[in-house]
């Protein structure tokens, strides 16, 4: 019995038995092969664990609930080893007015700090003199102020950037600087910056805009994780990709803030409604609270692997039979030993407790 327990414990610890048992039972029951190309056909089809399923159509790559964890998928934030398949209209691509305002602010600052070619608003002789002096000219300071106000409308938003612009604009406070920009007082005002001050301003703009962009990107990703109810979620329990798209050369979170947003939009346009092909043996079927049926697939094993699965299941069955038999024999032996001791004790009690009869009188 100890040997059976030891072998079974080692088998349970070191060998995954869930899949071999499912496939072995399905093989013994006679699994069926199903092939579908529409959601309606799959809804009408009786599915069992162990059946072979081949599905092909247009679906949406799965978006995990937590995309900020350490696990990185091939198409992060999309995990294309899972496909939502239903008849609902595809989700719209993510859009954000906040990010467009942030991108506009970054663009105008970059354009003024790093001009390409000559600027028609600046006298060529003045531009040449400024360039020789090593200074940098902001030729549309009012535009930077107005776009900062459009993005950072709250009193506690972009405090450091606002303070820097107030100092550059020689204003008492931010509200006064904004009023001057809105009234046109700052129109035509040029601001000269040293290279160090220009780098500081550029970094302040990047820091201020990045916080807005990261937040909007996270909200957009969460919105993608809200597919319509019903339908199916077909997943590969081996993590195999169900779509035929080349993997991105750079992971999403290695991009800067605005680049992350653009990459998210590109991936959304590609993966929110994409062709997929899934085939394998059904290893699990569940239904969530939204009425979506989750179907887990595993690649069809070859003859050798299937034989190994059957052998593993048979070995487990033999060990269970041996354990039950040895346990039964052990219990019978314990009961028999206990009964034997009781019988011996009763025998000797009867021997010593018998009344003595007196011997007859002899003459």
The biggest sheet amounts to: 5 strands, mixed, barrel
Strand tally is 8
Dominant shape: elongated
- Stretches where pLDDT is under 50 for at least 5 consecutive residues are none
Q: Can you write the helix and strand succession as a string?
A: HHEHEEHHEHHHEHEHEEH
Tell me the strand percentage band: 5-15%
What does this structure look like?
- This protein is α+β, with helices and mostly antiparallel strands and 363 residues long.
- The chain has two domains: 31-91 and 227-300, no CATH class; 97-221.
- The chain is 51% helix and 15% strand.
- It is built from eleven helices and eight strands.
- The chain has helices spanning 2-14, 18-29, 39-44, 97-113, 124-133, 141-151, 159-168, 174-183, 195-224, 257-271, 303-352, and strands spanning 33-36, 52-62, 79-85, 136-138, 191-193, 232-236, 274-287, 293-298.
- Strands 2-3-6-8-7 form a five-stranded mixed β-barrel. Strands 4-5 form a two-stranded antiparallel sheet.
- Helix 3 links the parallel strand 1 (33-36) and strand 2 (52-62).
- Helix 1 (2-14) packs antiparallel against helix 11.
- The chain is elongated and about 145 Å long.
- The mean pLDDT is 83.
- Keywords: Cell inner membrane, Cell membrane, Membrane, Transmembrane, Transmembrane helix.
- This is Igaa: a membrane protein that prevents overactivation of the Rcs regulatory system.
- The chain crosses the membrane at residues 309-331.
- It is a multi-pass membrane protein.
């Amino acid at each position: 019995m100890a040997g059976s327990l030891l072998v079974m414990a080692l088998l349970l610890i070191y060998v995954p038995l869930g899949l071999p048992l499912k496939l072995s039972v399905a093989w013994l029951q006679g699994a069926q092969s199903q092939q579908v190309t529409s959601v309606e056909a799959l809804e009408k089809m009786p599915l069992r664990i162990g059946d072979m399923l081949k599905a092909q159509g247009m679906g949406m790559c799965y978006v995990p609930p937590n995309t900020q964890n350490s696990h990185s998928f091939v198409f992060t934030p999309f995990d294309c080893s899972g496909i939502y398949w239903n008849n609902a209209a595809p989700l719209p691509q993510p859009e954000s007015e906040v990010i467009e305002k942030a991108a506009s602010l970054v663009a105008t600052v970059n354009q003024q700090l790093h001009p390409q070619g000559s600027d028609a608003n600046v006298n060529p002789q003045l531009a040449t003199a400024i360039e020789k002096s090593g200074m940098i000219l902001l030729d549309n300071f009012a535009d930077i102020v107005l776009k900062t106000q459009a993005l950072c409308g709250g009193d506690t938003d972009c405090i450091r950037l606002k303070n820097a612009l107030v100092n550059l604009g020689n204003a008492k406070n931010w509200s006064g600087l904004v009023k001057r920009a809105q009234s046109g007082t700052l129109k035509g005002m040029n601001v000269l910056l040293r290279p160090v001050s220009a780098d500081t301003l550029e970094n302040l703009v990047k820091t201020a805009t990045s916080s807005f962009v990261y937040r909007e990107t996270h909200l957009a990703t969460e919105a993608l994780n809200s597919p319509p109810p019903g339908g199916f979620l077909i997943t590969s329990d081996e993590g195999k990709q169900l779509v035929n798209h080349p993997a991105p050369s750079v992971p999403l979170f290695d991009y800067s803030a605005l680049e992350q947003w653009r990459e998210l939009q590109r991936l959304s346009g590609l993966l929110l409604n994409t062709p997929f092909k899934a085939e394998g043996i059904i290893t699990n079927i569940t239904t969530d609270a939204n009425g979506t049926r989750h179907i887990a697939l595993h690649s069809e094993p070859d003859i050798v692997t299937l034989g190994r699965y059957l052998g593993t299941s048979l070995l487990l069955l033999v060990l269970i039979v041996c354990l039950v038999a040895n346990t039964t024999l052990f219990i019978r032996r314990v009961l028999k030993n206990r009964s034997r001791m009781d019988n011996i004790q009763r025998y000797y009690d009867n021997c010593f407790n018998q009344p003595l009869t007196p011997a007859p009188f002899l003459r």
